[in-house]
Design brief:
Layout (H helix, E strand, L loop, with lengths): L32 E3 L5 H8 L35 E8 L9 H4 L12 H14 L8 E6 L2 E8 L2 E16 L3 E10 L5 E12 L4 E12 L2 H5 L1 H23 L2 E3 L5 E3 L11
Antiparallel strand pairs: 1-5, 2-8, 3-4, 4-5, 5-6, 6-7, 7-8, 9-10
């Protein structure tokens, strides 16, 4: 993690940073699945059912240590050169400090958030489990047991990338609740690496956040050749997933006279970094 703090220890006998070799490029064939038409849910599930194996990478499992809500981010220095680290956090419920004062001056509860944190958290956890937040205009996803296939549209062509779930957790205590889903990129993917998705509820402030944290390297020659486009697509996908998750977690906003009512989702500056 950044700064090497928080008492995180590294496993003995494991290489780090420049002492590690990044994953080697795979062969040109077979090519990834592609189509000019948006893949159906059944098509994606059929692709997931092929169960390809995970591509070995350094620092496997390191996303488990990340907790963006509290600033615990991946440290680029512990990864081999050329690792692409992609991290985002967005608040899912509406923060009072982003609302003009005249909109909540009549409120008596003095809370930090308008929407109920548990409700937003539960909605987001359902969306996380069902991958509903990935269902946008140029992206879709489906899961078959331990494998997830994400279909995305780039330059008018749909491609399907297969991932394998490596970790699913749910933790709750008096201070917080947190649900995570982590998956590794497989041999039928343009990239090699790992991604973690998490929904975090801080009970003291009632804040709910969605986090995305990943690291990757090109695995297929096409990804290496088009690396700038691949990185831009990765950033755009994470941004779109965060905003979609926010929309799904929110159902109400503050009315002019204070209090909450059904209405369109707001766009507060909750995206980070």
């Amino acid at each position: 993690l950044r700064g090497g703090g928080d008492g995180i220890s590294m496993k003995e006998g494991t290489c780090y940073g420049s002492h590690c070799e990044p994953p080697k490029l795979g062969p040109l064939f077979p090519l990834p699945w592609f189509s000019v038409l948006r893949p159906s849910f059944e098509t994606l599930r059929r692709i997931a059912g092929r169960r390809p194996g995970i591509k070995p990478v350094p620092m496997r499992g390191s996303t488990e240590q990340a907790e963006l809500f509290h600033g615990k981010r991946l440290n680029p220095a512990v990864f081999p050169p050329s690792a692409f680290i992609n991290e985002r956090r967005i608040f899912l419920n509406r923060r009072m400090d982003f609302v003009p004062p005249d909109e909540y001056k009549h409120m008596s509860d003095g809370g930090v958030y308008c929407e109920d944190g548990r409700t937003a958290f539960e909605r987001a956890v359902r969306a996380l489990k069902g991958l509903d937040f990935m269902d946008i205009e140029w992206c879709t996803a489906a899961r078959d047991k331990s494998h997830i296939v994400i279909g995305s549209k780039v330059f008018g062509v749909w491609t399907a990338m297969t991932n394998q779930v490596i970790r699913e957790t749910y933790e709750e205590d008096a201070r917080r609740a947190r649900a995570t889903l982590a998956f590794a990129m497989t041999d039928r993917h343009l990239l090699a690496g790992e991604e973690m998705l998490a929904v975090h509820w801080d009970k003291q402030s009632d804040a709910v956040a969605f986090e995305v944290c990943s690291f990757s390297w090109p695995q297929h020659p096409v990804a290496k050749l088009l690396q700038p486009i691949v990185h831009r697509t990765q950033r755009g996908a994470v941004e779109a997933f965060c905003l979609r998750m926010q929309e799904m977690a929110r159902a109400r906003e503050l009315t002019e006279g204070g209090g909450c009512a059904d209405g369109p989702e707001s766009r507060d500056p909750g995206v980070w970094p």
